[in-house]
Input
Amino acid sequence: AQKITQTQPGMFVQEKEAVTLDCTYDTSDQSYGLFWYKQPSSGEMIFLIYQGSYDEQNATEGRYSLNFQKARKSANLVISASQLGDSAMYFCAMRENAGGTSYGKLTFGQGTILTVHP
Amino acid sequence: GAVVSQHPSRVICKSGTSVKIECRSLDFQATTMFWYRQFPKQSLMLMATSNEGSKATYEQGVEKDKFLINHASLTLSTLTVTSAHPEDSSFYICSAMSGGHFTDTQYFGPGTRLTVL
Output
């Protein structure tokens, strides 16, 4: 079974509008971390935002916020006021504690290609 | 955020040759480094996890003798693709983290595009 599911292969948004990229996850761990990365066409992976399983508040970083719904096991990324430079592939990832044996491994979703139109 | 460099950014080699890719953490000590492979428009596939001073842990299906990983110091890990073949052509990307807690962030290098002719 997929541990991280991103159901939107591609999304389009108008410049200055907000967009939500979906991510659901599957884990039996109580302790885990959720990450979002941006990958522009250049290939580098840029860390955007982190949400811990015990965090009660939704994480925010500038124009990025994470809509964390623990009971539904979803961690959607919200980008406000989209810019042309936001066009990229976006990956949701999870790190499980796995009893301390995960060694920090991340499991990635399949990614969503976001295109921002002027 | 922390900076991870990768060298070279692009390499073209002939079939049968070996290629070494370096991954460096520039402003922090990386206790753990990871090597990923990515095909176009696909997700990252973890190849191996390396801890400084110990042998790398390879994911299932990744050939240890084909993809040699060395993590000689807290700031440097290398991936050597031995006897490269065209099917090894891919985008290789490393990441580094300074801790092992599930809250610690992995920072990624810019990637290396390998083309084997």
